[in-house]
Specification:
18 strands, about 300 residues, 5-stranded mixed beta sheet, 2 domains, binds zinc ion, Fumarylacetoacetate hydrolase, domain 2, alpha+beta
Length: about 300
């Protein structure tokens, strides 16, 4: 099953045709893309039948209309230094426990859009993002996937100057500028993936591949992260978990390379999909044009019109 946020409305794709969830369920389930996670088990049980009973697709074309599939999570967890060779390229030692920070949820954005570059050095970090489906407290790694609604592609965009500054580095602030958390294009449920613990992911800048790895290379895999986090905090339905980035970020390259106006960043997770961000300085020129025709959406428009 694939879920998307189409113009702020939850859309489900069971057999290749997108369906508006509220319409296909005749109002049983809300159109709010965030609300589904509080009723995940019921949704999982009932929506396939509802889709099968529909005569025709109940959603319009998706292109250029996608918002963040999880627009308003109550908590966003992010993991640093979770791939051996990425820890090495940043100069940090390998962590004995997961390094945890947050991306403040206002930075979330849809999978295709324009990101305004703030002052500093903005870097890319492609990541697998996990979406929590039910309250999780002290769960074992063995059962951790039972608490996952699905996975999606994410970019943990990071402004390195502020991130590394000071005796206590500002990871969370430096990674939370508007548009710094694009996710999508879809949430894909684990059953739809051959092996959710071993997914290829990567990204390219202007067509040049800069990151490519497999999630099986993580130091702490998804089950271990959920287990360890849930020993301290309660994970809530609809929470996001950015699982860390593999090697190949701009700060680890020689010479160092950061995102510049006009750059195009494409990111993918195999079996899940791909995203594309374009970087600009100042206000995006495309903010006033129609997303349906331009295919490019300013983050302000995503926030106000499409449930972020
Ligand atoms: Zn990251």
């Amino acid at each position: 099953m694939r879920l998307t946020n189409v113009r702020g409305r939850l859309t489900v794709d069971v057999d290749g045709n997108p369906h508006d969830v509220e319409r296909v369920s005749r109002g049983v389930f809300s159109s709010d893309p965030q609300a589904v996670y509080d009723r995940w088990d019921e949704f999982w049980d009932r929506i396939p039948e509802m889709v099968a009973a529909a005569d025709e697709p109940t959603s319009g074309p998706l292109a250029g209309a996608l918002g963040p599939v999880v627009p308003f999570p109550r908590q966003v967890f992010a993991i640093g230094l979770n791939y051996v060779n990425h820890a090495a390229e940043t100069g940090f030692e390998l962590p004995a426990d997961p390094v945890v920070f947050t991306k403040f949820s206002s930075c979330l954005a849809g999978p295709f859009g324009v990101v305004v570059l703030p002052e500093g050095e903005v870097d890319w970090e492609v990541e697998l993002v996990v979406v929590i489906s039910r309250e999780a407290s002290a769960v074992t790694a063995e059962h951790a996937w039972e608490y996952v609604a699905g996975v999606t592609v994410g970019q943990d965009l990071s402004e390195r100057v502020a991130q590394m500054q000071g005796s206590a580095p500002q990871f969370s602030l430096a990674k939370s500028h508007p548009g710094f958390g694009p996710i999508g294009p879809a949430l894909v449920t684990p059953d739809a993936l051959a092996n959710p613990d071993d997914l290829e992911l990567g990204c390219s800048v202007n067509g040049l591949e800069v990151q490519r790895a497999r999630t099986s290379d993580m130091i702490f895999g998804v089950p271990e992260l959920i287990s360890r986090l849930s020993r301290t905090v309660t994970l809530l339905p609809g929470d996001l978990l950015f699982t860390g980035t593999p090697p190949g970020v701009g700060m680890g390259r020689t010479p160092r390379r950061f995102l510049r106006p006009g750059d195009q960043l494409k990111s993918f997770v195999d079996g899940v999909g791909a995203m594309r961000q374009t970087f600009v300085t100042g206000l995006p020129e495309t903010a006033s044009s129609s997303p349906a025709t331009s295919g490019v959406v300013g983050t302000d428009k995503l926030h106000s019109t499409w449930g972020r």
